[in-house]
Design a protein that fits this description.
By secondary structure, the chain is of the alpha/beta class. The chain folds into two domains: 212 residues, NAD(P)-binding Rossmann-like Domain (Rossmann fold, 3-Layer(aba) Sandwich); 36 residues, no CATH class. It is 46% helix and 14% strand. The chain has eight helices and seven strands. Strands 3-2-1-4-5-6-7 form a seven-stranded parallel β-sheet, sandwiched between helices. Helix 5 links the parallel strand 5 and strand 6. Helix 3 runs parallel beside helix 4 and helix 4 runs parallel beside helix 5. The longest helix has 29 residues.
Length: 260
């Protein structure tokens, strides 16, 4: 393992999974590159300060639905940092609704952000990882990358694809020091999807958002939402030398959701 690691977190704007990954990797003393919206830069700094960290960190912006935009961002990252040792593919969007009424552009956006973006980032970091014979790639999928969920055809298809891509790429790299895995979170406390779906369910059913959250939580037998630090700790472990023999795994972190 390189003495000084450089990690790129895609999807750092997410207030739960993204922040969890950033804080956990800061704890390893990695140099951080974070893809996020400009408005999220100061909140990320604030969370790091609150956790007692002041890492070397750079911020980058890109439209994850655009291959050209991602490629331009990756060129900037590599020009400024030289190489990436750890790549966390955490970009995510979700359209919910019947497939027959789904706008074509929303299908294409879900596939682009949730799946194709993983390809565009991986292909740019792999040459450097191969040169150093060390690397860690983690695709952030979802419980719905392992099981189905109605009215989310594009999201479910893309998140299943992110798992499949991790398996296939792990086998391509199995004789190297580069590992590729996927994590599959369930409902994560304060995640944008949880907030959005609780709000939408509450409005549709005429109940409080608290009641809607309780209904969503019923998916997880533990009766608790996954914490951002839980997700971050799993990502940090997969990025360590101790996880060298974990290759092509799709690891659930969902309070037992997919064990049922």
């Amino acid at each position: 393992m390189p003495a000084a690691k450089t990690a790129l977190v895609i999807g750092g704007s997410d207030v739960s999974v993204g922040i969890g990954a950033i804080v956990a990797l800061a704890r390893t003393q990695a140099t951080l590159a974070v893809h996020c919206a400009p408005a999220k830069v100061e909140p990320i700094h604030a969370r790091l300060r609150a956790a007692g960290f002041a890492p070397a960190i750079s911020f980058y912006e890109a439209d994850l639905a655009s291959a050209k935009s991602i490629d331009a961002m990756m060129s900037r990252v590599l020009a400024e940092l030289g190489h990436i040792d750890i790549l966390i593919n955490g970009g995510s969007v979700q359209y919910a609704g019947p497939l027959e009424s789904m706008p074509v552009e929303r299908w294409e956006q879900d596939i682009a952000v949730n799946l194709s973006a993983c390809f565009h980032t991986c292909r740019r970091v792999l040459p450097g990882m191969r040169e150093r014979d060390w690397g860690r790639i983690v695709n952030v999928s979802s419980s719905q990358g392992l099981v189905g969920s109605g009215y989310k055809a594009a999201y479910v298809a893309a998140k299943h694809g992110a798992v499949g891509m991790a398996k296939a790429l792990a086998l391509e790299l199995v004789q190297t020091g580069i590992t590729v895995n996927a994590i599959c979170p369930g409902w994560v406390e304060n995640s944008s999807f949880l907030v959005q779906q609780a709000r939408e369910r509450a409005a549709a059913e005429g109940v409080s958002e608290e009641a809607a959250r309780a209904t969503l939580l019923a998916k997880q037998p533990t009766g608790r939402f996954v914490g951002e630090s839980d997700v971050g700790a799993l990502i940090a472990f997969l990025c360590s030398d101790a996880a060298d023999q974990i290759r092509g795994a799709a690891l659930s972190i969902d309070g037992g959701w997919c064990a049922q």
